[in-house]
Amino acid sequence: MAETPPAPGPALPKWPIGPETFTMVLLLTVLVAYGAISNNIVLPVLPALAQGFDVPVGAAMLTISTFFVGFGLGQAFYGSLSDRFGRRPVLMAGVGLYTLASAGCAFAPDLETLMVARLLQGLAAASAQVLARAVVRDLFTPIRAAQILSLMSAAFAFTSALAPFVGGLFQGWFGWQGVFMVLTAIGAATFFVLLTGFGESLSKKDPDAMNLPRITANYRSISVNRVFLGYTFTFSAAFAGMFAFHSGSSFVFISLFGYTPRMFGVFFALVLVGYLLATVVSTKLVPVLGIHRLVAAGVLISVVASGIMLALVLAIPANPAAILIPQFAFMFGFGLVMPNAIAGALAPFPEKAGAASALLGFIQQTAGGSMVAVLGLLVDGTALPMAGCIFAGAVLAVACFLVILPRTARVHETAG
Fold first, then answer.
1. Of 202, 203, 244, 274, which has the fewest CB atoms closer than 10 Å, so is most exposed?
2. Cα angle for residues 183, 169, 71 (degrees, 5° grid)
3. Considering only CA atoms, which of 170, 74, 174, 60 is closest in space to residue 128?
4. Quick one: average pLDDT of 246-275?
5. How many CB atoms lie within 10 A of CB 266?
6. Who wins on pLDDT, 109 or 39?
7. What are phi and psi of 164, to 5 degrees?
8. Domain co-membership, 174 together with 229
9. In angstroms, rounded to a whole number, what is the distance separating the alpha carbons of residues 373 and 232?
10. Mean pLDDT over each residue of the chain, to the nearest integer
11. Are 189 and 246 members of one domain?
12. Domain boundary among 210, 244, 278
């Protein structure tokens, strides 16, 4: 079946960016990476924050958790807002708030003000991630959407790996405030592009999308769809496993194994290469194998790799390779799961892509946050809790794929 993308909405800007252009893919990639960039770039400056505000390091780490509180809460309502008013105005409002909140972080006089600004920053950043995915669904058919999301995921992996290095660099030049200056500049540049070059992607606005009964009905219809639930919970469980590594690896490699923060950054980047490779492979294979098969391959690779990691950590607990090599493979599997599961989850809802993307993001962030909470309770001074949580996420992903996702999920892959 020939893939014909839905007709885009009216081109509002003076020089609209075409859907298939590099600029559009770059813009959407930056938007979907707002959460990761805003978090990863801050990680190296936490000790400087603690010293600058004369607070314990644990208190400084609250700037990470408050960001994710806002980021998780924001997932819930941006979709419906954009279904009612369009993607462009809601995106511009969200990115504008993000820019102001980032500037507020840079000039925060105390930790409490910084935490409030970070909460607002997370709330605003959620608009970028939710609506970037919705725009992809607006402009492309599911197979092409999976390809675009794979390209975006590849760039996402690169920026996620680069962000800690950038944070450390700007801290050295301008202090901890330099990190938030970078985020302010990113927000301002994105706002300019949206203002001057981004057309409305939603072909038909829903005037009742913000009505409470309609919102309830929309989320009810989405939440009972097994295709959406299967792909969403599969992706979210795998994401939770990935997030366990993201949250626990600095402790394992720096505190437990004695590596420097710079060397930890190298390890972190090397592991993300597995994810990067998978997104490139996915782009090439999804037209041939389809979304369903690639998600299946991804969860299988992830569960085998994390199982091997758990076994190796039990057998040789002080060996970094016992974690790095299996995690590289896990991230390769996750790189197959992420773009394809998102595209599969949104495919049944072309007319409610915003709400579906919002619900998916909320479930994703809830799963990741819950896994980190579990990991925090299990920490015992070894790498075992982290390895166990990664494996648990992979096992849950396989279970969700096999139990929830119906075999008829493939019929949505060519839906327009």
1. 203
2. 30
3. 74
4. 77
5. 14
6. 109
7. -60, -35
8. no
9. 21
10. 80
11. no
12. 210
| Rounded Cα distance, 319 and 211, in Å | 56
Considering the domain architecture, whether residues 196 and 316 belong to the same structural domain is answered as no
Angle at 80 between CA 74 and CA 83, to 5 degrees: 130
> What helix, strand, coil percent values describe the chain, rounded to 5?
80, 0, 20
Q: Is residue 257 part of a domain?
A: yes
Distance CA 212, CA 231 (A): 26
Dist. CA 260–CA 266, nearest whole Å: 10
Query: Do 176 and 48 contact (CB within 8 A), yes or no?
Result: yes
| 148-186 pLDDT per residue, tens | 776 676 666 677 777 777 777 777 787 788 889 999 998
The boundaries of the domain holding residue 51 are 14-210
Q: Which of 144, 178, 210 is the last residue of a domain?
A: 210
Same domain, 120 and 169: yes
User: Crossing angle, helix 321-346 and helix 142-174, to 10 degrees?
Assistant: 130
Location of structure tokens 């390895």: 387
CB-based contacts of 139, cutoff 8 Å, min separation 6:
5, 6, 8, 19, 201
